[in-house]
Specification:
single chain; alpha+beta; UbiD C-terminal domain-like; 2 domains; 10-stranded antiparallel β-sheet; 5-stranded mixed β-sheet; 24 strands
């Protein structure tokens, strides 16, 4: 497993999955265009070594393929993440009966306890400490991604806050618009935990809310900020479980928060509770510009960083972009949690075109009347799945990753007058199609095979499938056909 960003860069270079670019480039638009072409052509990670004549390289497209995100998370395939999650879930499901089972559970619990974050007294991310007039965000090669963006945006931050009542930490990836040398916005959407922490601070009449922002770190920790975890679950503990060892932290210099010790940069500061400023527009992962709106203001009190740091970034825009692969990994990790609530679910795919929350394809084993609808309503009642606009349900034997097959099932298996479920509920802040902000209609599509379970009285036709002996015959003779 990788200890920091440099370790992963070295690994990717050995795999020929990273290209160093020494040609001078601009942080305004040029890097976006280069990275977008690389992502959409399944290209490598890119390390720009000469950006704006600054001595800080920019790393982008780090997670822009299924292979790279899997390697970064320490697995060979993203499907392996479901196995890790299942292992942890099984600790809570069935009490161990035999001595051997008890020893296995004890071993897993010890491993889990060793994965809790560990506090260090000294860390590389604080090799250089800038305070007061030394703080200047414009010294960093922060990107302006798209022509109509309101300015430069930090796009891959780990924004760290605490619940003022419980002290529970949250780590979230929320974009940050740079207003001036010492001030940014933080775009945490209504349904995110960071936003809930801010509302709690407001409810309890706090004057200020401390915030720390980490840029970079080991790949697991960087990715953990995008996980859709329950509010009371620590992202850094989950990162430690996946790493097989603790995320090392260090206390900030000017605020009472901890940050990953091996990150590249740390931005420390606070929000004046109640202070807001217009943030945006920003070219977002929807493929459209998100409209300007008011968000909290972050005031910096310090910048710390490694000696010779690397600035990590992502771009978003028309899918697929790098965040699609990050979301793909999240969905594989969270699948066992969905199955714990609804064991009939076999697999879930949230395709790039659906931007994660907009479109979910679910395969399931149907067993009784109304079972499909039960799964739809169940998903809409689970955390951020409440934001899903379209749920397509297919039979358990359908490959949800094969969108061509799924489209065929929709085209042939549904009667719109019978198989559509339309409801209303919460919507993502970025949903520009809803009639009112943050509230929209949703549709469920039952694309399963119909039978008497569904009140279907006709005979359902058999699918066309070639006989196995003929397929085997053709396999053995294939080369002789010279096709």
């Amino acid at each position: 497993m990788f200890n920091n960003l440099s370790d992963f860069i070295d690994f990717l270079e050995e795999k020929n999955e990273l290209v160093r670019i020494s040609t001078p480039v601009s942080s305004e638009l040029e890097i976006t265009e280069i990275a977008d072409r690389a992502i959409k052509s399944n290209g490598p990670a890119l390390l720009f070594e000469n950006v704006d004549n600054k001595n800080i390289p920019v790393l982008i497209n780090l997670f822009g393929s299924e292979s790279r995100i899997a390697w970064g998370l320490g697995v060979d395939s993203l499907n392996d993440l479901s196995g890790i999650a299942n292992k942890l879930i099984n600790l809570t499901k069935t009490p161990p009966k035999s001595m051997i089972d008890k020893l296995k559970v004890l071993s897993e619990l010890i491993t889990l306890s060793k994965s809790s974050p560990k506090i260090l007294k000294k860390a590389p991310c604080q090799d250089v400490v800038l305070i007061g007039d030394e703080i200047n965000l414009f010294d960093l090669p922060i990107l302006k991604c798209w022509p109509d963006d309101a300015g430069k945006f930090i796009t891959l931050p780990l924004v760290i806050t605490r619940n003022v009542n419980t002290g529970q930490r949250n780590v979230g990836t929320y974009r940050m618009q740079v207003y001036d040398k010492k001030t940014t916005g933080i775009h945490w959407q209504t349904h995110k935990v960071g936003s809930a922490h801010y509302r709690k601070a407001k409810e309890t009449e706090q004057d200020k809310m401390e915030v720390a922002v980490a840029l970079g770190g080991d790949p697991v920790t960087i990715w953990s900020g995008s996980l859709p975890l329950p509010p009371d679950m620590d992202e850094l503990l989950v990162a430690g479980v996946l790493k097989g060892g603790p995320v090392e932290l260090v206390k900030c210099k000017t605020v009472d928060l901890e940050v990953p010790a091996n990150c590249e940069f740390v931005l420390e500061g606070y929000m004046n509770v109640g202070e807001q400023r217009v943030e945006g527009p920003f070219g977002d992962h929807t493929g459209f510009y998100s409209e300007p709106s008011e968000y909290p203001v972050f005031h910096l009190t310090a910048i710390t960083h490694k000696i010779n740091p690397i600035y990590p970034a992502v771009i978003v825009g028309k899918p697929p972009t790098e965040d699609y692969f990050m979301g793909k990994a999240s969905s594989k990790l969270m699948l066992p949690a969905l199955q714990l609530t609804m064991p009939e679910i076999v697999d879930v795919n949230m395709p790039a075109e659906g931007l994660f929350h907009n479109f979910a394809i679910v395969s399931m084993k149907k067993e009784y009347p109304g079972h499909v609808q039960k799964v739809m309503y169940g998903l809409w009642g689970l955390g951020l799945m409440a934001l899903t606009k379209i749920i397509v349900v297919v039979d358990h034997y359908v490959d949800v990753e094969n969108t061509s097959e799924v489209a065929w099932r929709i085209g042939t298996n549904i009667d719109p007058s019978r198989d559509l479920v339309i409801v209303k509920g919460p919507a993502d802040d970025l949903d520009h199609a809803s009639e009112v902000p943050k509230y929209s209609g949703k549709i469920g599509i039952d694309a399963t095979t119909k039978s008497e379970l569904d009140g279907f009285n006709r005979n359902w036709p058999d699918e066309i499938v070639m006989a196995e002996e003929i397929k085997n015959l053709v396999d053995t003779k294939w080369n002789s056909y010279k096709i």
